[in-house]
Amino acid sequence: MTALWLTVALMTGAAVFVVLGSLARRREVPADAAEADVAVYRDQIDEIARDRARGLIDERDADSARVEVARRLIAASDRGGLEAEAAPSVRRRRAAAVIALVGLPLVSLGGYAVLGSPGVPDQPLAARAKQAPDVSRVADMVSRVEAALAKNPDDGRGWEVIAPIYLGMGRADDAAGAYRNVIRLLGSTPDRQANLGEALFAAAEGVVTQDARIAFERSVEGDAPSIKGSLYLARAAQQDGDLPAALARLKTLMERAPKDAPYLGALKDELQRMAEVPPLPLPTGAEAEALKTPEQRMAKVREMVDALGDRLAGEGGDLGEWLRLARARAVLGDTDKARAAIEQARAKFSGDGRAAARLDALALGLGLEGRGA
């Protein structure tokens, strides 16, 4: 910090002296230069009169010469007056420059020392961008909004602003109350009903309660049903043990979604979650330590997946193993082999409705069928 202030002081001083030096330098003009010019031009006028008297020039030439000499005489007289006034003007400009270049920096630095925070360390933008939001500021903002709502509880926009903040802060019950106020004051829309249901779902710690289900069902009514509401209703169906109904709802969303729909990723994640795919057991201990490079680890994974596929093709296996094989094939980029695994599993578990639903969910979630296939 000391080095910074020293550098600033030196730079300011250098700038001051450069400007003052420029102001100090001026072109020296003899004091009687203008008076000498005036005297010369007056002599010329007298000379013209003498030449006319001797008949050396005619009257027309004499008049022209007198006009030109008179013009030069007036100009010389004006320069003399300006130079007489110049000295005080230059002194005033120099005084103003000294005040501006010396006084203003001193006043500015002194004011910053009193009102600013010169002892605070620097805060680079890159470092500040990585910091988490100031919780105290968020809490202060929430307090201000709450105070305003306490004075005007019928401010629907205020409730709509604070509701998602409550949810982000983990205050799900408050968020649900805020969304109820929004619907009461501003009217019901699919998005507002879906947000209310989401807050009730969070308040119930991940369970779709009856109140949440009602809100989600309202959110999918009409011509513009809520995607969020449909996702939660699918989860409610799975929660009730009706996986085919959950899959049917998500499959409909998948088929109707535009190719660039921003919620396709969430749909696929939800479908894979419903498939309940057990993880592939990976090497551990000494065997894992022996795999030094990414290429070695990838080769080991492929070896394990191929071994699983050979075993299931020869001996068969449970549904979880078939799901694991299909997902592993897809992750490795072997989409044709992943589809073949799905079809083999469907044939094997053709009489099990729940197994069929899990296989369908995984196929959709991996993009092997429907949208993205």
From TrEMBL:
GO cellular component terms, A-Z: cell envelope; plasma membrane
UniProt keyword annotation of S-adenosyl-L-methionine present: no
GO BP annotations, alphabetical order: cytochrome complex assembly
Top-level division of the source organism's lineage: Bacteria
Keywords from the UniProt entry: Cytochrome c-type biogenesis, Membrane, Transmembrane, Transmembrane helix
Localization: Cell envelope
Membrane spanning stretches: 6-24, 95-115
Protein's UniProt name: Cytochrome c-type biogenesis protein CcmH
